[in-house]
Predict the structure.
Amino acid sequence: MLDIGKTSNLPQPKCYFSTTTLSTYDDSSELPTKKVPFNLLHSAHYYHTITLLSPSSSTLHTSLSSSRSKYARLRMPLLSLLSGDFFNKHIKTGNVLLLSSPLKVDTTSSEASFTMINGVLSIICDRALYERAGLTGTAIPDPHARKHGTSKFRIELNLRLPSMLAGKKGFERILRAAETVFLGDISWLFYDISAAGVVDNDVSLGKEVEIREVKPDTEDMEKVLVPEFPSNMTKGANQENDLVELLEWISLAAINSPRIQQGDLVDEIISRYEVPDISSKAVDGSRTGVTTQAVTRTTATGFLPASFVTDTFGNALLQSSGSWFALVVQGFTDGKAFVVLKTADDQALSWNVEG
């Protein structure tokens, strides 16, 4: 684990680093799921933004720029999800991902948020809503709250169980909570795993539905100062700074910062950033490990399922023989992100950021 962040009484972000030598794969079906760095691709069910950095001389950016995905934005109350065609088609028999915006209860300052994964509805709410809902859940300690701050609660309901039907006692309790406690229209992001996207003209999605297509944006960045990517990098006492600086360079490249471009002139009062040279220095002190390259940045933003990220990484990996690329992935949860750097000599350097 890398120590990143200032000293504070609050919990600090954690960054876990790992490195491995990649095997040779001929087909995406051969890619593992539990081995580093592939396990990071499956660490969440959905993501918000994915950025692929690669040399412009290669064709790796096409692995993302040619990808397409559809998701929908719905607006409906919780009760509509638990009844009618939507419930029967997408929850009891289908397989969908749902992520809600916070539901703010007008009469109080309370709010709740909802997710749906593999038929399990998760509700996160404060104590006031939890006690009114009358559903069984567990407390979630808030590390950012004061010592005696109010905890939030998580309620998980497996709606695919045979007992989750109208007329059953447990299900009627959920419907009652939707009718009397979790009131109001909610904005949802919707992705149908069964249909690999969203089916057009799906009347079960309601009247207020907006189908969006993920269209990656590609940008060529000229004269980028690129550090030499190390081989067999480990988290040693004398290499931790190099790991942090390399992660910082990838993060700046992902937003096309002018600080990493050759000839950048900026007052030191504004920034004293310098592209890291983590290679062995020459006798005269010159920077031997920094080269100037043209780099292509391809970014996709939306409600991206894990399959979208794994396909992008798999296609890039199969096409990257003798070349490098970096994949930057950000989730919806605050502070959740990971970075994978694949070097020309088939080393994979991974940073997993939490918090």
